[in-house]
Design goal:
The complex is a heterodimer of chains A (about 280) and B (about 280). Chain A has about 280 residues and is mainly alpha-helical. Chain A has ten helices and two strands. In chain A, helix 4 runs antiparallel to helix 10. By secondary structure, chain B is of the alpha/beta class. In chain B, the strands form two sheets. In chain B, strands 6-7-8-3-9-10 form a six-stranded mixed beta sheet, sandwiched between helices. At the A-B interface, helix 7, helix 8 and helix 9 of A face helix 2, helix 3 and helix 4 of B.
Chain lengths: ~280, ~280
């Protein structure tokens, strides 16, 4: 998990036309795509909208010059969390359909409905595309740029300061975790070494986690002291300088927003279906 | 009137751990003061009293002749800047620029002034090129400079550095020495620093306080402190290598005058060997 954080950062530090875009542009596009997808009614038109959006995402991803494997790995890492919720929809009735056709009957009165499968698939499409845009945003935007972008877009100062510190210390603890891991390795400790007693391994892992907690607490105390030394108070905020979007960023943003808005509207009005 | 003065300052940590006993400390204007002592001597605890982070259990701390109160805390913290030993405790913003801006923001300055102060502070410590970088990509020395810049940006008149050379490579230590000296000479600041590296002290201090077990056991100029090897040994410190060597040479019949810094020792030895008049 922590190593993944460093990997995401490494990808975000690469260079491409998408990486070079101002964070605000990428945030706006990602959120516009998510809102547009969520706003599409629960009907089969989502498949047409979804495939067009997915092509749009693929074009953007190709421009990032990042490997599709990176995208696939990240998407697969997240999908199981939601996948279970989506999977269970096939057994449940929902308010979007009036009639239900049983496809398969299981013991204990559990049925799988054709309409529920369709609903689950609609959810899956919405979810995959929303996640894809989030992966695009996180893989091409440094965390601090994202925070600056969000601040410039009106994120409250209190949140920005707290998030800024969280980002900073996420990496500090990432490095601390690495060091502790290296120390354990230096002392030939492997949590999966079956030659060591199970209880002993558990105990050592407990000590390690405990150490991390104590260190976090101590670090928090020291950081707060140094914040006070620099005049921290209720009015503190994260300093973000004003920055105007460049002409090409405006052009890209407006074109993308028009596209994202127009696609669902056109599909809805014209009832075009690619399937 | 002294910039900082403590009178019979005592501090007891929760759990009845006595950390400071009757500390009488004076920091005049434009001075370079070293507080030396072994680990746990109370140096960091003393420093935290200088800007009101710790409140004395008894005794008093006066800054510009005034006691520290709730009303003047902000002003005091602007006046006395503290740089802690571990820069990771002090760098909390996601970028260098934002971190250095943290202090000026808290002083309620306008964005133009903040921008100016940030870039001026980064220039003073020689890291203007790091403004947009993230702290976890910096080396230990660079982080230390960022931490110092963060305090310098508040334009304090007294800079307190807790173990400034800890974890720095020789070049980093040399750069830091030059920087500390320039703060006093060029900007007229008072610099107070703690260390247990006695070799560093003659290069960057005019006056020394020796601490042990929460007490000031000696104070004086570099010459006054380093002619007391027994006292230094009793507090787990030692005389720096240069005066120690020159003293030994003298005791063995070499005519050489006493020196404490590298430059002074070089001159003394060259003169002793007849290479310089």
């Amino acid at each position: 998990m922590i190593e993944e954080l460093f990997r995401i950062e490494r990808d975000a530090l690469k260079d491409s036309v998408i990486h070079r875009l101002d964070a605000r542009v990428k945030i706006a596009i990602a959120f516009a795509a998510i809102i547009a997808l969520v706003a599409v009614p629960y009907s089969t038109m989502i498949f047409t909208v979804g495939i067009i959006f997915y092509v749009f995402f693929c074009v953007l991803w190709a421009c990032t010059r990042l490997s599709p494997i990176i995208y696939a790995k990240r998407a697969l890492a997240i999908i199981p969390l939601w996948g279970i919720i989506i999977f269970f929809q096939i057994f449940l009735k929902n308010r979007y359909y009036t009639t239900y056709d049983v496809v398969m009957s299981l013991p204990f009165g559990i049925n799988i409905y054709a309409q529920s499968i369709e609903f689950a698939f609609i959810l899956f499409v919405k979810f995959v595309i929303c996640i894809s845009f989030i992966i695009l945003l996180s893989s091409t935007t440094k965390l601090q740029d994202m925070l600056e972008g969000a601040s410039r877009m009106g994120l409250p100062a209190e949140f920005a300061l707290a998030l800024g510190m969280m980002i900073r210390y996420l990496f500090v603890f990432g490095y601390m975790y690495r060091k502790i891991n290296e120390t354990l390795k230096t002392k030939c400790f492997d949590a999966f070494d079956h030659h060591l007693p199970y209880r002993y391994r558990l105990q050592q892992l407990g000590y390690t986690i405990g150490t991390m907690f104590i260190r976090s607490y101590e670090q928090g105390e020291r950081v707060y002291t140094s914040m006070l030394c620099r005049g921290y108070g209720r009015e503190s905020y994260l300093f973000v300088e004003k920055k105007a979007l460049k002409r090409h960023e405006w052009a890209f943003l407006s074109t993308s927003l028009v596209f994202i808005t127009a696609v669902p509207v056109i599909v809805w009005i014209t009832r075009i279906s690619l399937f | 009137m002294h910039l900082i003065e403590t009178r019979d300052l005592c501090y007891v940590y929760p759990g009845e751990v006595k950390a400071l006993h009757n500390i009488n400390f004076i920091a005049p204007r434009n001075a370079r003061i070293a507080v030396i002592g072994s680990n746990g001597a109370g140096k960091s605890t003393l420093f935290k009293h200088f800007n009101g982070i710790f409140k004395p259990t008894s005794g008093s701390v006066l800054v510009r002749g005034e006691p520290i109160t709730r009303q003047n805390t902000k002003e005091i913290r602007k006046f006395v800047g503290i740089v802690f030993q571990n820069p990771d405790d002090q760098i909390f913003a996601p970028t260098v620029e934002q971190d250095v801006a943290f202090g000026p923001v808290n002083l309620g300055l306008d964005p133009e002034t903040i921008h100016h102060r940030v870039h001026e502070a980064l220039r003073v410590v020689g890291i203007e090129h790091l403004a947009g970088r993230v702290p976890h990509h910096l080396s230990g020395g660079e982080k230390k400079r960022v931490a110092i810049a963060g305090v310098i940006a508040m334009e304090p008149e007294v800079l307190v550095l807790d173990e400034p050379n800890a974890g720095l490579d020789p070049r980093g230590v040399a750069d830091l020495n030059m920087f500390i000296n320039s703060l006093a000479k060029k900007y007229g600041m008072t610099v107070i620093f703690s260390t247990h590296d006695v070799g560093l002290v003659p290069e960057i201090a005019d006056y020394i306080y020796v601490m042990d077990k929460g007490r000031i056991v000696a104070s004086g100029t570099v010459e006054e402190i380093f002619i007391q090897p027994d006292m230094l040994k009793s507090v787990r410190l030692d005389v720096p290598v240069i005066p120690k060597l020159l003293k030994s040479l003298k005791e063995n019949g070499v005519e050489v005058s006493m020196a404490y810094t590298y430059a002074e020792a070089e001159t003394a030895l060259l003169r002793s060997f007849g290479k310089q008049s």
